[in-house]
Amino acid sequence: MMDGQEILGRGGLAATEKRLLVVRALAEAEGPATPQELLATLGAQLNRVTLYRILDLLVEHNVATRHNAGERAFRYCLHTGHENHAHFTCSRCGHTECLDSGGFGADLSELLSHLPMRVDTAEIRFGGVCQGCLRG
Ligand SMILES: [Zn+2]
Ligand SMILES: [Zn+2]
Known about the structure:
Elements: H1 4-10, H2 17-28, H3 35-42, H4 48-60, E1 64-68, E2 74-78, E3 86-90, E4 96-99, H5 104-112, E5 125-128, H6 131-135
Parallel strand pairs: 3-5
Antiparallel strand pairs: 1-2, 3-4
One zinc ion binds at residues 32, 65, 77, 85, 87, 98.
């Protein structure tokens, strides 16, 4: 796991105390996290407005991904080596996780290179039943 300073640095962002708090909370989250979950982790260290502003900044600078798991809130996760990774959401319990899509991203670039427009972002989301629910 890279440290917060390194992660921010890759996005060309200065490592301010508050940005580091958010990046660490994202890194420690078990999966893509909603702002509500991040606020619960950060407690009184950060207010909601500041958190949203920092999350937007991280997305703009390609440090984090924002995606919609079909819920009311967006979820955020850090890019840890793979940018266009896929997400999985369980239709029974709502559990969402990042999938290391490996070569999948490369295939996607190949596909996108044939398109006439410039594509900057792509979102791949799988839905189904998670391991926990399959066992239950
Ligand atoms: Zn589940
Ligand atoms: Zn993710």
